[in-house]
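Write out the 3D structure for:
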Amino acid sequence: MSDLTPLARRFLESCKEAGILAATAESCTGGLIIAHLTDIPGSSAMVDCGFVTYSNEAKMAMIGVAEETLAAHGAVSRETALEMASGALARSRAGIALSVTGIAGPDGGSAEKPVGLVWFGVAVSGREPFAEKRIFDNRGRDFIRNETVRTALELGVAALSKD
């Protein structure tokens, strides 16, 4: 059991209470969010699918991120996170989709987009999707990815508690 298991359970319980399935669109986490969810027995009742869209090509082909968005803003951007979440929602049976795109390091960062920068997208059926940005301390790739999973699940729980 991971230290994220209680939070993953809480997110799944929120989905169950709302009567919806969940989907993810993951880049920098490479499927860790969906893995934490599906590690929990019975999660198939609340999880539809997870899209691992590491490359720009996968983002475009699998979840419909626009080439123009990637060209204008880059993969690690508010706009891409929003399109990832909306695309995952549209291409699944889910009522909520969580997306993450960021720079987990150890390289790939810049002054404008440092290692630790992650954009999160949340799309809930019938609502405007929203995005949030975090810059995690550069304490290693594992730390950044785990904090990304934690934050995505927290945003999902918060989104489902708004009513």
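The radius of gyration is 14 Å.
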